[in-house]
């Protein structure tokens, strides 16, 4: 149990060390100490979402035979290509409108910005967390 905890801490530190630079920049730009909790809460929510998605994906991966995993990963680019052909670039405009709505909300802007930054910069962490969680008993 202790070895699992130590290895989990090591995995988290090694995957999140790059995000430390982003947090330093965010804290350096703060004008008020009252806003610090927005950064803390956004960072914890984003990290929690990444770990939660990784746990669910690792649980699902355990039901897929090992010989099929690489072949099933090849379906992801095919899906993205078909979706782009059918939907086109219209969905990107919807994403821009969502971002504009977030910018209008001044009270929670920092919180959601930090949450989305955590998820965006932590997307590569999924490639580490999923196999790590799948290897645990």
Folded structure, characterized:
There is one protein chain. With 137 residues, the protein is mostly helical. Helix 3 runs parallel beside helix 7 (109-121) and helix 3 crosses helix 8. Helix content is 80%, strand content 0%.
H/E series? HHHHHHHH
Overall spatial form: flat
Let me know the average pLDDT: 80
By secondary-structure content and strand pairing, the structural class works out as mainly alpha
Largest sheet: none
Task: Calculate the terminal CA-CA distance, rounded to whole Å.
Answer: 11 Å
Q: What share of residues is helical?
A: over 70%
Number of beta strands: 0
From the alpha carbons, calculate the radius of gyration and give it in angstroms.
Answer: 18 Å
* Number of contiguous helices: 8
The proportion of residues in beta strands is under 5%
Uncertain runs are: none
């Amino acid at each position: 149990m202790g070895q699992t905890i130590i290895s989990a801490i090591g995995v988290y530190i090694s995957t999140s060390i790059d995000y430390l630079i982003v947090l330093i920049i965010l804290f350096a730009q703060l004008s008020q100490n009252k806003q610090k909790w927005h950064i803390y809460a956004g960072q914890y929510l984003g990290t929690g979402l990444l770990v939660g998605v990784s746990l669910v994906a690792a649980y699902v991966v355990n039901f897929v035979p090992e010989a099929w995993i690489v072949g099933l990963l090849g379906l992801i680019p095919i899906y993205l290509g078909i979706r782009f052909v059918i939907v086109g670039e219209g969905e990107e405009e919807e994403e821009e409108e969502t971002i504009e709505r977030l910018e209008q909300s001044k009270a929670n802007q920092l919180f959601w910005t930090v949450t989305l930054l955590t998820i965006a910069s932590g997307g590569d962490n999924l490639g580490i967390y999923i196999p790590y969680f799948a290897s645990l008993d």
